[in-house]
Design a protein that fits this description.
By secondary structure, this protein is mostly helical. About 65% of the residues lie in helices and about 0% in strands.
């Protein structure tokens, strides 16, 4: 399958995700957020969790904070079509 074929096949879904304010590259960090939730439930401090996840996923602590904030937020309402 060519890239353009995959985009055309999923164009409706992709448009809806973008309209909702979802960044497609965030999908690679779903496991990071799951680990964050688990570590919070275990009673770890947020600063420790962020540092550990940044090290584990080879990203900056600022990026981890940004991902957590974005994943916790509500989706934007879909624009009127």
């Amino acid at each position: 399958m060519k890239v353009i074929e995959a985009i055309k096949f999923n164009s409706g879904l992709l448009k809806n995700l973008l309209s909702a304010g979802i960044r497609l590259d965030d999908a690679q960090y779903i496991a990071l957020y799951d680990e964050y939730i688990q570590m919070c439930a275990e009673g770890n401090k947020v600063s420790y969790i962020v540092a550990a996840l940044a090290d584990r996923y080879h990203i900056s602590e600022r990026k981890v904070y940004s991902l957590i904030k974005r994943f916790r937020s509500d989706c934007k309402p879909f624009a009127a079509e």
